Amino acid sequence: MKKTFYTILVLSSSIYADSTILYEYGNKDYKNPMSKIDGKVQNIKYKYFNKSHELQLGIQSDNVNRKHSILNINLPSLDVEKYSAKYIYNLNDTLSLKGSFIKIIDNLAPTDQGKVYGLGVNYNSLKGFSTSLNYYKSDYNSFNVNQYDISFSKVFKIDGVKLKTTIIAKKIDIDGSNYGAYIFKDKDYFTSGVNYQSLTLGAGAFFGERIFTVLDNGMKVQHHAMHQDKTYMFSIGKKFKNFDIIAKYSYQNGKELPENRDDIDTKVTAISLIYKF
Asked: Which of the chain's ends, N or C, has fewer CB atoms near its CB within 10 Å?
């Protein structure tokens, strides 16, 4: 399946102009979890766009080394693949519709074979303001997750530099009783976030409680039972004529629910390469 997906990306990028292809490689570092030590993550994304349509395809591959923190024994590695797709249709200059899909393959988690469906609408005003409403349905074996997103964005210029600011709120509801052997104690979560993005710099944060969160406008999902309460992100890049390079850093703090383990830090450093056709 992975080879087929890579082939589709390569063929698509060779056929269509107005396209970008991204490759990202990152390292993960964990502090205080029950078993996770460190790992690596790889992402490939293809995007085709014109005035009326935008299509994105993605694959994310994670490999995490594990060792039991109490028994001090090595455990099988965690291997995850996520396949994602998103389509946006621009009805006119102000209104667009979106559909998205994610498939999860996980060798250890109860959310293996999970599917995430998304629908959304975006309205752009003529003054640089935009509003988005999105709904995501995460379909897992023993439970489902409903997520409702609303965001407000504003594009403006400072000394000739374009900057986009986005404020977002996410309401997450769990429909079901258990994640494997773990019985859910809380089923309703709410988090809010802010993001700043220019041509070369980006920064963002989430505040409030969240779990099983769909991110990146429907292209990513956190499918493990990890209760997050702090997230910070930063990026810096350099743009060339047909090529961009971006360095990224993210930090998350939360709690492993099945293991009942608090104050888990997850740090990811990554480098992204983007080529424009």
From this structure: N
Contacts of range 128-134, beta carbons closer than 8 Å, 24 or more positions apart: 128/154, 128/155, 128/156, 129/153, 129/154, 130/154, 130/155, 134/98, 134/217, 134/218
Backbone angles phi and psi of 158, in degrees to 5: -125, 115
For 70-116, what is each residue's pLDDT tens digit?
999 999 999 999 999 999 999 998 999 999 999 999 999 999 999 99
Residue 249: name the closest of 263, 266, 264 by CA.
Answer: 266
- Torsion-angle region of 137 (φ positive above 0: left; ψ -120 to 50: alpha; else: beta): beta
Rg (CA), the chain: 19
Using 50, 70 and 90 to split pLDDT, how confident is the model at 14?
Answer: low
Structure tokens at 227: 């209760």
Residue type, 49: F
Q: Which of 23, 16, 41, 6 is nearest to 277 (CA)?
A: 16
Q: Which of 219, 208, 216 minimizes the C-alpha distance to 253?
A: 208
pLDDT at 91: 96
Nearest to 85 by CA among 62, 116, 111: 116
DSSP codes, 41-67: EEEEEEEEE-SSEEEEEEEEEEEEEEE
Q: Rounded distance, CA 95 to CA 103, Å?
A: 28
pLDDT in tens, 191-216: 999 999 998 899 999 999 999 999 99
* Tokens 């099945």 -> residue: 258
Strand partners, 272: 24, 246
Cα–Cα distance for residue pair 39/189, rounded to 1 Å? 28
Sign of CA dihedral 219, 225, 228, 231: negative
For residues 268 and 27, give the distance between their C-alpha atoms in angstroms, rounded to a whole number. 6
